[in-house]
């Protein structure tokens, strides 16, 4: 079935690229064998519309033209479907190939693969085999387990407002949030959405794992300006705890909490099965420490200890 569809798409693309005038659906049906075998007009129309959308998704620019008789025709002009010269060197090509391998989810994997095929067809140099030989045991990945990721990714791309239910770490029940999504950022293995919260009239950052239920799209344009990507990334990092303003002292069970140990400013080994660490303290550290459960005890400051205790109580209440 996949081969048959690929052949049908190829034939449709060749017809649209090879014509000097718009071709009607009737003419295309009479030129492509798979369309001729369609049982009814309805099945052909559905097949053609899907194929047309698939070709556009792949990057083919298909024009829709209405002739003097009012009949709709289609064509793909060669000058509109020609890539400009590619000037990537071998290192840049290798970086693109590496980035394309990061994504695991099907939608992004297909888009990344298709983009690489287009670039290679336009002359992008192939990555050297030595990289594959040396690094095949290490596979870079950004895992995405949250169901909210894909609809939010599309909403960010299309600049489309969304509504979802969000449960804060200290809240017993989720609240409905109306958000103008800006971008998605990954930090320490967790995905965050940065955007404009319409109800609060301010920018907010949401952790995707705390979104419950479905993400619903809403019509209408954004009401707040979208900042540049660098500014949004700094906002996410600050909210998630990347920007530290002071230090915290914690006890950590021996043999656990390696991400905390990697960020520690100092580590003092204990004899009772616990180590004492000094770590950077910024916004969001309380939420991160809660993830380590009984393996972490906050010693100071007192406000951080209180925040962690409140979060643990909220989790215990369910």
Overall form: elongated
The largest pleated sheet is described as: 5 strands, antiparallel
Flag low-confidence runs. Answer: 129-138
| Rg over alpha carbons | 26 Å
Helix proportion range: 40-55%
Order of helices and strands: HEHHHEEHHHHEEEEEHEHEEHEH
Which structural class should the secondary elements be placed in?
alpha+beta
Roughly how many Å apart are the termini?
Answer: 47 Å
The tally of strands reads: 12
Short description:
This protein has helices at residues 2-18, 25-31, 33-36, 41-57, 90-100, 106-121, 129-135, 149-158, 229-240, 258-263, 285-290, 302-317, and strands spanning 23-24, 63-66, 72-75, 162-166, 175-187, 190-197, 202-207, 211-217, 244-253, 266-268, 274-282, 296-300.
Q: What would you note in describing this structure?
A:
There is one protein chain. This protein is of the alpha+beta class and 318 residues long. Helix 5 (90-100) runs antiparallel to helix 6. Strands 7-6-5-4-8 form a five-stranded antiparallel beta sheet. The protein has a four-stranded antiparallel beta sheet with strand order 10-11-9-12. The chain is 41% helix and 24% strand. The protein has helices at 2-18, 25-31, 33-36, 41-57, 90-100, 106-121, 129-135, 149-158, 229-240, 258-263, 285-290, 302-317, and strands spanning 23-24, 63-66, 72-75, 162-166, 175-187, 190-197, 202-207, 211-217, 244-253, 266-268, 274-282, 296-300. A hairpin with a 4-residue loop joins strand 6 (190-197) and strand 7.
Helix/strand layout:
Elements (H helix, E strand, L loop, with lengths): L1 H17 L4 E2 H7 L1 H4 L4 H17 L5 E4 L5 E4 L14 H11 L5 H16 L7 H7 L13 H10 L3 E5 L8 E13 L2 E8 L4 E6 L3 E7 L11 H12 L3 E10 L4 H6 L2 E3 L5 E9 L2 H6 L5 E5 L1 H16 L1
Antiparallel strand pairs: 1-3, 2-3, 4-5, 4-8, 5-6, 6-7, 9-11, 9-12, 10-11
């Amino acid at each position: 079935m996949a081969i048959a569809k690929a052949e049908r798409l190829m034939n449709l693309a060749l017809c649209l690229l090879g014509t000097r005038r718009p071709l009607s659906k009737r003419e295309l049906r009479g030129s492509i064998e798979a369309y001729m075998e369609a049982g009814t007009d309805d099945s052909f129309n559905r097949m053609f519309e899907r194929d047309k959308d698939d070709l556009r998704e792949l990057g083919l620019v298909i024009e829709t033209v209405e002739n003097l008789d009012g009949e709709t025709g289609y064509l793909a002009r060669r000058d509109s479907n020609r890539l400009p010269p590619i000037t990537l060197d071998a290192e840049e090509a290798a970086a693109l190939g590496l980035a394309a391998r990061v994504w695991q989810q099907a939608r992004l994997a297909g888009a990344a693969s298709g983009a690489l095929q287009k670039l290679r067809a336009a002359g992008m140099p192939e990555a050297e085999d030595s990289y594959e030989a040396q690094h095949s045991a290490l596979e870079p990945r950004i895992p995405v387990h949250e169901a909210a990721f894909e609809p939010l990714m599309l909403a960010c791309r299309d600049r489309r407002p969304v509504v979802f239910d969000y449960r804060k770490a200290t809240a017993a029940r989720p609240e409905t949030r109306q958000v103008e999504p800006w971008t998605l950022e990954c930090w320490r293995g967790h995905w965050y959405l940065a955007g404009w919260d319409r109800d609060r009239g301010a920018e907010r950052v949401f952790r995707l794992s705390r979104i419950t239920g479905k993400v619903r799209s809403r019509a209408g344009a954004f009401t707040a300006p979208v900042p540049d990507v660098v500014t949004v990334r700094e906002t996410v990092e600050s909210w998630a705890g990347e920007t530290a303003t002071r230090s915290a002292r914690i006890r950590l069970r021996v043999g656990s909490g390696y991400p905390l140990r990697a960020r520690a400013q100092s580590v003092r080994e204990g004899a009772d099965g616990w180590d004492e660490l000094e770590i950077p303290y910024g916004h969001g550290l309380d939420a991160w420490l809660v993830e380590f459960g009984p393996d972490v005890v906050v010693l100071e400051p007192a406000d951080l200890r209180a925040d962690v205790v409140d979060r643990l109580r909220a989790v215990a209440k369910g």
